[in-house]
Amino acid sequence: MSPGTVDPVSTSALGGLLRAHALRLVTLLEPLGEPPPGSRRVPRPETARERELIAATAEQLDRIGSVLQGLATSGVERSVRRRGIDEEAARHELGVDGTRVTEWQGPSRIDPAHRLRARERAQGLLNRVTAAEGRDLARLSRELTASVVTLRALSAQARDDAT
Amino acid sequence: MENFSASRADLSTVACMASTGGARRVPPHVVRALARGRALTRELAADLLTHTPDMGHEVGQRELDAWVDQAADTLLALSDALEARLLELGTAPAADDRTAVPR
């Protein structure tokens, strides 16, 4: 993995883990007195508070897990596109260095005007890939920030209940 | 971060009381679910802390690490809340069960 790039494998693994954890938490609701959907049973009041906390925590885990899985998927797609740009650039004796397309050192047999057009085209494609990654990371950042606030409030409520 | 092994009471004793007369009005499956939830939330918190994906960016990495820490803390707090309710329901007089009001 190149520096500055999300590792899709470990990111997807955490995303999947979080969603699996959310599901396991949700399985506690019915035994704790939550009627199944469509049931006429009345919710058990003694454990209403705990069910509320469990459901809210599960929702946060699932939400962030889903964002991480999406980030991993688009990371793989971006890797494929980046590889395509690398190959196209190499055909014109160009290389990709991070977010920039550069010319190989030394004399070239390729027509300078043709090489310049190829470089501009490759740079344009690379800019799109970089911008898409930036948008994904910005979205993750927003989701994490909002979720931390919610989780912090849930911790405080749970600790109030425990004392 | 709290100590995973911390426990306020012998929960198996509480569960036994609930199912054998200590708190007759609480169905045993609810007590068992509380005990299972308490254990599960601790297990999930510990498991969460073993996964550290590489975000490739310092800021993103810091934000994700902070979120994972907070999520683990919330699961532990939830575990404490489930334990407290387990103790309450397991040791409350039977007559209180019908009038219990969620906090």
Verbal overview:
The complex is a heterodimer of chains A (about 160) and B (about 100). In chain A, helix 1 runs antiparallel to helix 2 and helix 2 packs antiparallel against helix 3. Chain A has three helices and two strands. Chain A is mostly helical and about 160 residues long. In chain A, strand 1 and strand 2 form a beta hairpin. Chain B is mainly α and about 100 residues long. Chain B has three helices and no strands. The radius of gyration of chain B is 18 Å and the shape is elongated. Chain B starts with 10 loop residues before the first helix and ends in a 12-residue tail after the last helix. The N terminus and C terminus of chain B are likely disordered. At the A-B interface, helix 1, helix 2 and helix 3 of A face helix 2 and helix 3 of B.
Using CB atoms under 8 Å apart, which protein chain pair has the greatest interface? A-B, 51 and 46 residues
Roughly what percent helix of chain B? 55-70%
Q: Give the assembly state of these chains.
A: heterodimer
Strand arrangement in the largest pleated sheet of chain A: 1-2
Helix content of chain A: 55-70%
* Class computed from helices, strands and strand pairing of chain B: mainly alpha
Shape of chain A from CA axes?
rod-shaped
- Mean pLDDT of chain B equals 74
Number of strands of chain B: 0
Write down the overall geometry of chain B. elongated
Number of strands of chain A: 2
List the helices and strands and how they pair.
The complex is a heterodimer of chains A (163) and B (103).
Chain A: H1 8-26, H2 48-91, E1 94-97, E2 100-103, H3 112-162
Antiparallel strand pairs in A: 1-2
Helix pairs in contact in A: 1-2, 2-3
Chain B: H1 11-20, H2 28-48, H3 58-91
Helix pairs in contact in B: 1-2, 1-3, 2-3
